[in-house]
Design brief:
Residues 123-144 are annotated as: Disordered. This protein has helices at 2-9, 21-32, 69-84, 98-121, 144-164, 186-204, 211-223, 228-249, 270-286, 288-302; strands spanning 35-41, 50-54, 58-64. The chain is mostly helical.
Length: 324
């Protein structure tokens, strides 16, 4: 609540067409009478996904050019939140203040939800780059049970990622919880946070992601005569599962691989992105093809016996905070 009150105090301009983060940040820059220049550069997994630094007459936001569209939006809003909230920024991210980063991330969530609501409330406006209108995403209209199953699958992937990559967790005191303040509702706010943290985890897993695993799983799925969408799901799920095992097992990763990452083409809108991640989660836990790939590559990358998917969740998921 404290972060939301601080944002309201700045009286930011309302989002306007085309309802993109870049357009809104330009409007915020005009209100501040100080330019915000956004550039994309290749950044490896050890570097932050974005950072901001101040020049003499304008501010600069640098983003990882390999980010998926929704992750790019979240990262841009996070960095702009640093500027709006008056944080002292450190380009090299040395001695990072976790509380400052947490404030900026909560602010980015609130800004993203506000951007989505503005797009939904304008009749005839272009669809939001953050959130589609209800009923337009994949799986909508397929029934309450299917939607709840998708929510559960997304939750399982999220808890697995939080256990394997704990640095993505947005934890803290409950008085900063923003869910009740979200005009789109707590469930949507939670889904947004889950997808954002999964995006962050996939980027952190980049050094352990191996394209050979993807191609092997792709071939296995094609030999089983699956459709194109299922082939992609199996291949991506296997790549993520093996990357998780590599990290958990302590295998060395390639931090200089800037674009070796799963799901770089995730949809920009939240609902279809969540749906696709839910499909990946289901495949990781239930597909015998993914299990076969993990068994095949597990002993290669760790020098141990073949892996099972159960081992990917050996660490207990951290206790959820209200902000998550």
């Amino acid at each position: 609540m404290r972060v939301a009150r601080r944002l309201r105090a700045f009286n930011l301009p309302e989002p306007a067409p085309p309802f993109t983060a870049e357009a809104w940040c330009a409007a915020i820059a005009r209100q501040r009478r100080r330019g915000i220049h956004v550039v994309a550069r290749p950044l490896n997994a050890e570097a932050p996904s974005g950072f901001v630094y101040t020049g003499q007459v304008q501010d600069f936001v640098v983003l990882d050019d390999a980010l998926a569209p929704m992750a790019r939006t979240q990262t841009l809003l996070h960095e702009v939140a640093h500027l709006v909230l008056g944080h002292k920024v450190n380009v090299l991210h040395e001695d990072v203040d976790r509380e400052v980063e947490r404030e900026a991330e909560i602010a980015a969530d609130l800004l993203a939800l506000r951007l989505a609501r503005a797009a939904q409330q304008r009749p005839g406006s272009p669809r939001s780059s953050v959130w589609p209108r209800r009923g337009t995403g994949p799986g909508e209209g397929s029934g309450w049970l299917q939607r709840r199953q998708a929510d559960w699958d997304l939750h399982m992937l999220w808890t697995t990622m939080r256990a394997a990559v704990p640095e993505i967790c947005l934890d803290g005191p409950p008085d900063d919880g923003y869910e009740a303040l979200s005009p789109l509702g707590a469930r949507r706010a939670r889904r947004h946070r889950q997808v954002v943290e999964i995006h962050d985890a996939l980027r952190q897993l980049r050094p352990w992601y191996c394209m050979d695993v993807y191609l092997s799983a792709q071939g296995r799925a094609q030999r089983n005569r699956l459709d194109a969408e299922s082939v992609r799901t199996i291949a991506e799920a296997a790549g993520i599962a093996v990357a998780l095992r590599r990290k958990i097992a302590g295998a060395a990763g390639d931090i200089q691989a800037p674009h070796a990452e799963a799901c770089m083409d995730l949809p920009a809108s939240l609902r279809p992105a969540a749906h696709r991640l839910a499909r990946l989660s289901h495949a990781m836990r239930h597909s015998p093809l993914v299990t076969a790939e993990v068994a095949q590559w597990g002993s290669v990358v760790t020098g141990a016996r073949p892996a099972t998917l159960i081992e990917l969740q050996t660490q207990r998921a951290p206790k959820l905070s209200r902000a998550a």
